[in-house]
């Protein structure tokens, strides 16, 4: 009888311990993938004649704004390569991205509070604007802002082979911000982990002549 009582008391404690371990491991995996540097790949929410220009293309950084490259621009910009990071003095996560391959310089990603353009800059640039909360969908890890996927692409009329990235915060197709006559497509932003180069040294020897 005593052994049975001990088992009955120990079982709930063991289950609780196992559940705590499982939740801890799940949280560690979640934080790990959010901290990995990823590119952003665009998928058009609805197929159309215009969507073929940008579907499956990369988001790039250029002149303090985020664009979608069509692969035809002579100066396509720097591919987004970023990750989630707690935003300073806030209770949510923001997103940072490298802005050049020359040096390890990271900038904050934000949405201009007046135009809804998605931009990048140092904290003094980002602070007055919409800096988060950025997150991602549970299943496909598509990017979200303020709890939903409201990103859209706007075709540039300059013929530079780029589409501007916006966040349709008012959910009106940017009619209030851009008026009529603009090509605006709903897009989804998927995170693709940056390909890791082969390391040099003891764990990645390179053949020499």
UniProtKB/TrEMBL annotation:
Signal sequence residues: 1-20
The entry's keywords: Signal
Protein's UniProt name: Uncharacterized protein
Species for this entry: Venustampulla echinocandica
């Amino acid at each position: 009888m005593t052994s049975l009582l001990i088992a009955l008391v120990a079982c709930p404690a063991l289950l609780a311990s196992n559940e705590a371990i499982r939740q801890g491991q799940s949280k560690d995996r979640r934080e790990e993938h959010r901290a990995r540097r990823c590119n952003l790949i665009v998928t058009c929410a609805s197929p159309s004649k215009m969507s073929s220009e940008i579907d499956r293309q990369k988001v790039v950084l250029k002149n303090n704004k985020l664009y979608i490259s069509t692969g035809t621009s002579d100066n396509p910009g720097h591919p987004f390569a970023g990750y989630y990071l707690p935003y300073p003095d806030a209770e949510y996560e923001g997103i940072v991205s490298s802005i050049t391959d020359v040096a390890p310089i990271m900038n904050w990603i934000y949405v201009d509070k007046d135009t809804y353009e998605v931009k990048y800059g140092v904290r003094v640039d980002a602070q007055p604007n919409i800096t988060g909360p950025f997150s991602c969908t549970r299943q496909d890890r598509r990017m979200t802002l303020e709890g939903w996927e409201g990103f859209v692409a706007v075709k540039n009329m300059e013929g530079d082979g780029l589409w501007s990235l916006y966040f349709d915060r008012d959910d009106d197709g940017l009619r209030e911000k851009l008026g009529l006559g603009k090509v605006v497509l709903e897009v989804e932003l998927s995170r693709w982990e940056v390909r890791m180069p082969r390391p040099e040294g003891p764990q990645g020897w390179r053949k020499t002549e």
